[in-house]
Fold:
Amino acid sequence: MLNIAVFVSGGGTNLQALIDAQNRGEIKNGKITFVLASNEDAYALKRAEQAGIPSAVVSRKAYGTKQEYDRAILDQLEGKNIDLIVLAGFLSILGEDLIARYKNRIINIHPSLIPLFCGDGFYGKRVHTAVLNSGVKVTGATAHFVNEITDGGAIILQKAVPVEDGDNEDILQYRVMRQAEWEILPKAVSLFCQGRIKIVGNKTEIL
Structure:
């Protein structure tokens, strides 16, 4: 059974999707054992408490550099035997030290079909604003591994979601979460915990 740490920054809807999937027995060979938040006001901490999952806050504002922030996070992970880190709406960019320590063991969920609408500056509702401004008819979500390039790691799963007439950022964000993020993130985590993801270059094969 692999130990999973989930990193959060806000409401924690993706954390809840993971908890719900775990309760339904859909995360095979894995268990969420720790939640780390980048701010103390994140409602995700309440979700962790309600699920009986230990949590901690490592505030990005408290550290001057990415390296210092990485060290503080690594200190929190020390001794917890974490096998997989899941970034579930985690808005702080991780530094090279942490990414190197957990190489190919960090999964992120991004609210677009990478390589579209991704990279530095594309997070949260900014992504959906860009999608709506572009006029595309289809968007979606991507579960991918994390490397040193923002949203640049190997893609694990993607799911498309229609952009509909009359959409605003809130409506589109909720549709992408409900129809894509909450579905593919637990699936990707389960595949990892079962050892069913093979990384070849910057691509994945699902075994």
